[in-house]
Amino acid sequence: RSKELGGRRVEVFAAHMHADVVRRLELAADLQRALIEQQFAIEYQPVVDLATSRVTSVEALVRWWRGSVFVPPEQFLGPAEDTGLIVPLSEWILREACREVAAWRASSWDIGLSLNLSARQITAPRFVETVEEALAESGLPASALTLEVIEEMLVEDAEETIKRLSELRALGVRLAIDDFGTGYASLAFLRQLPVDMIKIDPSFVAGLGRDDTLTLLTRTIVRLGHDLGLTVVAEGIERPEQLELLRKMGCTSGQGFLVARPMAARGVDSLMRTSLTV
Ligand code: C2E
Ligand code: MG
Ligand code: MG
Ligand code: MG
């Protein structure tokens, strides 16, 4: 009897696993099709200089409409990474975003572009060459491009990852640490990579003015960044009070729904035509 029960348990477990595997395979197939059918789009979120409110750059954020359903990046980037589809997808984002931002620079003023990198993209063959090509094709100067990385990217292939990012930096591309403060090795990471910028994780910014510890930590990160000669960007600004406090702390730049939401390219187009500030 116990054998029977055990057998059934295994069966239930297997059925559950099966559904999960099927879902993942379906997602992988849909991702592949989405790439071929160009279902992906890029939105751009303005980043402003906190002292002037001027838009200094935009961060490219990938968007996927799976039929009529919007799938958040956090749901498909993992599977895209696992299947390797992240490599062609990231290359498309890189080339497309460089081209669009270069066009905005030609028609209005000199904004920069921030791109999120994936671990697999960095270690893929010809990553450095692909970035060089994207810059050359679009005419975007290397100094206008910032590549954002998170600490988790150094978990595997740390040596190769650091080598490639250093090569890009030598070309004049800037490097940023995204979600700064959340990884277990934030400070070690600063020493290993030649970084230009840190982006303070929204979990700190969320507590500004409401939580003494988070406010103190944010102030400490801003000071640390400045002492190291880095640009400090605060992410996830949603309330006027946060903006005010970050300005007082002397934080360089800000990004968040209060400042501007991610927008389609035509939104940036009209922003460029109408004003330099948000
Ligand atoms: P991230 O790079 O830290 O990007 C910021 C995320 O915060 C974006 O979410 C943005 O829409 C959201 N956000 C901005 N301001 C606010 C705010 O005031 N409040 C709140 N609640 N959220 C805000 P999104 O677009 O869903 O992207 C999530 C993450 O997915 C990104 O985090 C990044 O790690 C990754 N990602 C997005 N696009 C790409 C891409 O093209 N390539 C790669 N490799 N990763 C990407
Ligand atoms: Mg980012
Ligand atoms: Mg972030
Ligand atoms: Mg993030």
- Number of DSSP strand runs: 9
Alpha-carbon distance between the termini? 70 Å
Strand order of the largest sheet: 1-2-4-5-6-7-8-9
**Relative strand content:** 15-25%
Helix content: 40-55%
Largest sheet: 8 strands, mixed, barrel
Bound molecules: ligand C2E, magnesium ion
Average residue pLDDT = 92
Structural class: alpha/beta
Q: Regions with pLDDT < 50 over 5+ consecutive residues?
A: none
Molecular shape: globular
Radius of gyration: 21 Å
SSE order, one letter for each helix or strand = HEEEHHEHHEHEHEHHEHEH
Number of distinct helices: 11
Give your account of this protein's structure.
With 278 residues, this protein is of the alpha/beta class. It is 52% helix and 19% strand. The chain contains eleven helices and nine strands. The chain has helices at residues 2-36, 73-83, 86-107, 119-123, 127-138, 158-170, 186-192, 202-205, 212-227, 240-249, 265-274; strands at residues 40-49, 55-66, 69-71, 112-116, 145-149, 174-180, 197-200, 231-234, 253-254. The protein has an eight-stranded mixed β-barrel, surrounded by four helices. Helix 7 (186-192) links the parallel strand 6 (174-180) and strand 7 (197-200). Helix 1 (2-36) crosses helix 2 (73-83). The longest helix is centred in the N-terminal third of the chain and has 35 residues, at 2-36. The termini are far apart. The mean pLDDT is 92.
Outline of this structure?
With 278 residues, the chain is of the alpha/beta class. It has helices at residues 2-36, 73-83, 86-107, 119-123, 127-138, 158-170, 186-192, 202-205, 212-227, 240-249, 265-274, and strands at 40-49, 55-66, 69-71, 112-116, 145-149, 174-180, 197-200, 231-234, 253-254.
